[in-house]
Design goal:
Layout: H1 11-15, E1 57-58, E2 63-66, H2 80-90, H3 102-107, H4 113-123, E3 124-130, E4 138-145, E5 147-151, E6 160-163, H5 178-183, H6 185-190, E7 195-199, H7 202-211, E8 213-219, E9 225-235, H8 243-249, H9 258-267, H10 272-277, E10 283-289, E11 312-315, E12 325-331, E13 336-345, E14 355-362, H11 364-372, E15 374-384
Parallel strand pairs: 4-14, 5-8, 11-13
Antiparallel strand pairs: 1-2, 2-3, 3-15, 4-15, 6-7, 8-9, 9-10, 11-14, 12-13, 12-15
């Protein structure tokens, strides 16, 4: 928001996610009275996990039911060191009750998966995340960081600007709509000199607006090419409307994924502005350097730490607090996932107990996966014992 954001989804692109901006962490769960489930046998290759189970925990939008580690699908197979990179990022902005564990997490960064798994079992308890009415099934979508060619100056086909916040942004709320920004002289005058860079395709610009951040392969005025990031800086405070929903409501398509939307655009180029203006929200950006080690991570999520491809998720923070390690299981036509991830972001469309938006990374392949991923989901929050 919202990978910023409020964050963004490309299935939820269409449904309406913006990259997230930081918000305070949700309160720690409370413990209601409840009886513990019966013990389960340990899975092969899993350290011993015996003893009585604690009572369930309750969050504002979810109920967490304690389980044995053996309930987690694929728990002995995951390449945990990949998730450890994301966890160390979370430790840059630690939140209770994980603050005291960060020293151990850092020490285990070069440990084997077996050692990391044994530590998880010893220090954390898995809780199955359910809705307050007991439903443990939910929805997984995905988002990504677009990679787009750009230029510092308009011309040679680069005609679509990405703007910084206008100086008058705080004086007028809501600010001009997307259509007014494109057509009204007074709106254009307020944005004079505020362009960060220029793109070729207005649809690429819309994708960046919906995702809330992106990477630009930008041609500088001296002809050199640099890689930079444009990160979410604010909006015009207009309501978000899904362009995919607009197409569906108009009866113009049955495929509201981004590949489906681009197919419709290719067949109807004269209606592009009509499509774009159906979403009045407009996003402003700030430029950030993207060099060296930073290039291996995504934009900062709502927790305030850089996102890790394949290991960061956006959640409803009233169901799962930021910084929580989560076991994610999802099976569907697009991907099979059983892995440790970190709750590090949120988004305007990511609402509910068992709901996650999976950060796929950046570039074409990440966009293709994010554009089509929409399948069932189960989650287990891993909470200190």
């Amino acid at each position: 928001m919202n990978w910023t954001l409020p964050r963004l989804v490309v299935t939820a692109l269409i449904v309406g996610t913006l990259a997230a901006c930081s918000t305070p962490p949700a309160p720690a769960p409370s413990r209601p009275e409840a009886s513990a489930p019966p013990p389960m046998p340990a899975a092969a290759g899993l350290p011993d996990d015996t003893g009585p189970l604690p009572p369930p925990l309750v969050q504002p939008k979810s109920r967490w039911v304690p389980v044995r580690w053996s309930e987690l699908p694929g728990v002995t197979d995951d390449a945990l060191h990949e998730a450890w990179n994301a966890w160390i990022k979370s430790c840059e902005r630690p939140v209770p009750p994980f603050t005291t564990l960060c020293g151990e997490v850092r020490q285990l960064s070069i440990a084997s998966s077996e050692e990391q798994r044994a530590w998880l079992v010893a220090r954390l308890r898995p809780y199955r995340v359910e809705s307050l009415d007991g439903n443990a099934e939910g929805l997984l979508t995905a988002y990504y960081e677009p990679l787009v060619d750009a230029a510092r100056q308009p011309g040679n086909g680069f005609t679509v600007p990405l703007h910084r916040l206008p100086a008058s942004h705080g004086a007028r709320k809501p600010w001009y709509t997307r259509q007014q920004i494109d057509t009204l002289p007074e709106a254009q005058a307020a944005l004079q000199g505020r362009a960060i860079a220029w793109l070729r395709d207005p649809v690429d610009a819309l994708v960046l607006h919906i995702q809330g951040s992106g990477r630009l392969r930008v041609q500088e005025m001296d002809g050199s090419v640099r890689l930079v990031r444009v990160a979410y800086a604010g909006t015009n405070d207009q309501p978000y409307q899904s362009v995919g929903r607009w197409l569906l409501d108009q009866g113009l398509t049955r495929d509201a994924t981004w590949p489906g939307i681009r197919t419709w655009i290719a067949a109807n180029p004269q209606r592009v502005n009509e499509l774009l203006w159906s979403n009045p929200r407009y996003v402003f950006f700030r430029e950030e350097p993207l060099e060296g080690f930073d290039a291996g991570f995504g934009p900062r999520g709502a927790q305030g730490v850089p996102l890790t491809p394949g290991r960061s998720i956006a959640v409803d923070r009233l169901s799962i607090p930021y910084g929580t390690p989560v076991w994610l299981a999802s099976s569907g036509p697009q991907v099979q996932l059983n892995r440790l991830v970190l709750a590090q972001d949120t988004g305007s469309a990511i609402l509910g107990a068992v709901r996650a938006d999976y950060f796929t990374g950046w570039g074409y392949e990440a966009g293709e996966m994010a554009g089509r991923l929409k399948q069932g989901l189960r989650l287990w929050a891993l909470w200190p014992r």
